[in-house]
Structure prediction request, 379 residues.
Amino acid sequence: MKRSALSLHATRMAALTLALGMLAGCDTLNDWFATDRVNYKTTSSAPPLAVPSDLTPTGIDPRYTAPPADKAFGGAPQRAVTAAGNSTEGVPNTQDPLGMHIERDGDHRWLVVDGRTPDQLWPLLQDFWKDAGFSLKTDAPATGIMTTDWAENRAKIPDDWFRRTIGRVIDFAYSSGTRDMFRTLVSRDPNGATDISITHSAMEEMLTGQDKTSSRWVERPRDPALEAEFLAQLMQKFGLTDAQSKQLLTDARLAVAPAQLDTSSGGSTLDLQEPFDSAWLRVGLALDRTNFTVDNRDRQKGIYYVRYADSTQELKRDGLFGKLFYSNESAKKQGPEFMVNVRSRGNQLTQIAVLDANGQLDTSKDAQNIVSLLHAQLN
Prediction:
């Protein structure tokens, strides 16, 4: 993939500034680039501390020794052992011998972890994203929403001859010209399991102008394959092997019920032939696949609080120059908020509607557009 104009300029400036003699010491940087499909980490680990030869190493007090990874902390549950020998976060059962499985709706998949609550898995999800090289922009266990900041997948940067030489010193100046963000929704299902979905958002830097010296950020489609990759990595963090996680993705269970559009009440509503619990999850996933972002949600009231998300402006605010030039007031200038209501109409029927500030059916054009988008995503 080509480097952006800004990145090319940074590369040239850095190459002129740095002395070629620094190449002799760049062997310590050979771990900066990985050949993995995803690599969002921008810093390398510090070297291990060495005890000087004239000092005697002291013994380590066992009170300060970290427990093994599969040992429970505080109120965290003990890991279960599967028949295959895995020590997993999920609780194995007849239907799920590995303690978890994947369900899908179209090209969107989510992980179901048996016998665990969202509270029990939340700290593991925090560690998962931080270990993957992300910082968390939204970390709200009360609403089950976790969102990363925009980050660059450095595995997409080509490993050409220039990068293997001069670039080994100034690798930070290279850019893939893309940024990714991931939203994790965590919900409790009626069977005592936890549903975890991961949704990808992407932006790409496009060169503009006749001389291609300026650029602008544009939205890219979400990448279901990248979402599946992170679900596989999450399953491995929960105790499965690489082969087992890929097999569960291949064997994803279909969870589909058609949505029927109803315009008889003067506005637009949707009817789903399924219980509230599964409808609540599917509506959240559908909203994530549109240009509307979930700011908050109240499962007890059955309401998703959403607004239109302009990813271009959001990326500008999150960037280095955005933090310098975008004021707090400009950051607050966001689109209006809408209330998407998911309401049970019986054991096997759920209605979806957009409500106004008074809790009544919103008949505005914007509200009907939201219902139309949800109708397309749910079918």
